[in-house]
Amino acid sequence: MSAPGTRAGEEADDLGAEEALALVQENPRPHTRGTPARTPDSRHRAMPWPEARATAERAARAAVRAAGRAPVPVSLDAALGLTLAAALPALTDLPSFDTSAMDGWAVAGPGPWTVREDGVLAGHTAAPPLTDGEAVRIATGARVPPDTTAVLRTEHGRTEHGRTDRTEQGRAEPGRTGHGATEPRRADGPDRLHATREVVHGQDIRPRGQECRGGDQLLSIGTLVTPAVLGLAAAAGYDALDVVPRPRVDLLVLGDELLTSGLPRDGLIRDALGPMLPPWLRALGGETGTVRRIGDDAEALYRAITESAADLIVTTGGTAAGPVDHVHPVLARIGADLLVDGVRVRPGHPMLLARTGEAQYLVGLPGNPLAAVSGLLTLAEPLLRTLAARPAPEPCALPVRDAVPGHPYDTRLVPVVLRGGGALPLHYNGPAMLRGIAAADALAVVPPGGVPPGQETEILDLPWAAGGIGVCFT
Ligand SMILES: Nc1nc2c(c(=O)[nH]1)N[C@H]1C(S)=C(S)[C@@H](COP(=O)(O)OP(=O)(O)OC[C@H]3O[C@@H](n4cnc5c(N)ncnc54)[C@H](O)[C@@H]3O)O[C@H]1N2
Ligand code: MOO
């Protein structure tokens, strides 16, 4: 990577976002609405895409009913991204004492006021009550002394020394005045404070309980813990929160052809899914333990599944019907219920969902990397979201800028960038490619037959893509 300002860095800047996008943008092709129907073979079990998602969500609801998901207390720093398992009552009034909202003086009654010698700072013990005609220097956030009637901002007060001084010429003159801050005292006796603006009763005092009273419900059950929720919980006195725990995920990567480092060689390729899936599963609400590489070993796959105590097992590869595609035979040996066995979606149609225990499910992702992403968002997303008690994302639809060709029968998931309120399909969206999705903001859901230019289509968020999505990002 080049440091900013170097030649290469300048070249990258010169390239510009749009040109960078052109590296991955799809060439518009005529959409294929009306393409003559092809008789699908072995399609009988494949489920329509919306139904597959609903099935995964229902399965997770059944798991929650069967096993429950006991709330766990976690420290604030571990709670981000989890869901509140109970409503959040305030543990205290907020603010918990009458607080100065400004730097200035706490005053009692009408001015001018006699200024007390000591000031009041935030975090200090309570100052003694003020009497009518008295003022005391006060800082923002400090407790206002009892019987304070208002806070006068520094910039709205003028102080005057309480005694006359002798000048060099021997003439008497009043103590010099200061605007805002009190000048160093040169004479005995308290300063006098004058307001330069009208003073309204109660001004710039945040009364105790202004935001909430102890016991008030601040947030409801099921609220996603965001950075703002962490701040509110801390302000309201919490050190820990009761949350729905992250569903545990065991990730089993299948395939003898996979390398974990270096360049592809001798027919071997790099494992793209081992690095990609754990953080993605976490963004969807799950927590992946170690990634286990099983190779193409049916016995090892059987053991890994039957020994797993995870809420969700995710396998990659081996879902088709090749000589070393062991997922189906092993699930049959276990006696698992196949709830989804193929989905009418491209890429990713061999994806599957099985029930492997009373409250345990297995999502089989196809090995082709973009097909695996498709399976992740079709089956693992609704499942993990429901297990983690996260709210469903608001449905979002945007117009496509160019025609997006469709499959004759199946839904397509197409990586897109979002620009100017519309979706632009990206090139390099083949099942084995990650180049398009790596540059994408979202996935467009393209129904069978395709979408003509300007027509709205459903958009699936990518968890990291805040930029440009606006309304869709939750
Ligand atoms: N006769 C048929 N063959 C295939 C069909 C079909 O319907 N009939 N479907 C194709 C489709 S579509 C897909 S998708 C794949 C699904 O295959 P599997 O889930 O069995 O996956 P594999 O065969 O193990 O691998 C497919 C492909 O992906 C590469 N791969 C696997 N794992 C990884 C990984 N972790 N990182 C990177 N790449 C990976 C693997 O090397 C293969 O190239 O089946 C088609 N075949
Ligand atoms: O479903 Mo496969 O994903 O088309 O490659």
Ligands bound to this protein structure: ligand LQZAQKY5, molybdate ion
Q: Spans with pLDDT under 50 lasting ≥5 residues?
A: 1-17, 27-43, 164-185, 467-474
Largest sheet: 7 strands, mixed
Strand content: 25-35%
Shape: elongated
**What's the mean pLDDT score?**
86
Region (Disordered): 1-54, 151-191
Function: Catalyzes the insertion of molybdate into adenylated molybdopterin with the concomitant release of AMP.
Pfam families: MoCF_biosynth, MoeA_C, MoeA_N
GO molecular function: metal ion binding; molybdopterin molybdotransferase activity
Could you please describe the fold and organization of this structure?
Pfam families: MoCF_biosynth, MoeA_C, MoeA_N. Belongs to the MoeA family. This is Molybdopterin molybdenumtransferase. It comes from Streptomyces tagetis. Residues 153-191 have a biased composition (Basic and acidic residues). There is one protein chain. Strand 28 and strand 29 (422-425) form a beta hairpin. The protein has helices at 7-22, 49-67, 76-79, 227-235, 273-283, 298-307, 327-334, 369-387, 435-438; strands at residues 47-48, 72-75, 83-84, 88-89, 99-100, 104-107, 113-115, 134-138, 150-153, 157-160, 165-166, 172-173, 177-179, 192-195, 205-206, 217-219, 240-244, 248-254, 258-259, 269-270, 287-295, 312-316, 337-341, 343-346, 352-357, 360-365, 397-399, 411-419, 422-425, 442-446, 456-461. It folds into 4 domains: 16-34 and 394-472, Beta-clip, CATH 2.40.340; 47-51 and 246-387, Molybdenum Cofactor Biosythetic Enzyme, Chain A (3-Layer(aba) Sandwich), CATH 3.40.980.10; 72-93 and 211-244, Molybdopterin biosynthesis moea protein, domain 2, CATH 3.90.105.10; 99-206, Molybdopterin biosynthesis moeA protein, domain 3 (Beta Complex), CATH 2.170.190.11. It is of the alpha+beta class and 474 residues long. It is built from 9 helices and 31 strands. The longest helix is centred in the N-terminal third of the chain and has 19 residues, at 49-67. The strands form 8 sheets. Strands 1, 24, 27, 28, 29, 30 and 31 form a 7-stranded mixed sheet that branches. A 7-stranded mixed sheet has the order 9-6-8-7-14-10-13, with no helix packed on it. It has a 6-stranded mixed sheet with strand order 21-18-22-26-25-23, with helices on both faces. Residues 1-17, 27-43, 164-185 and 467-474 have low confidence and may be disordered. The chain binds ligand LQZAQKY5 and molybdate ion. Residues 346-350, 366, 368, 371, 431 line the site of molybdate ion.
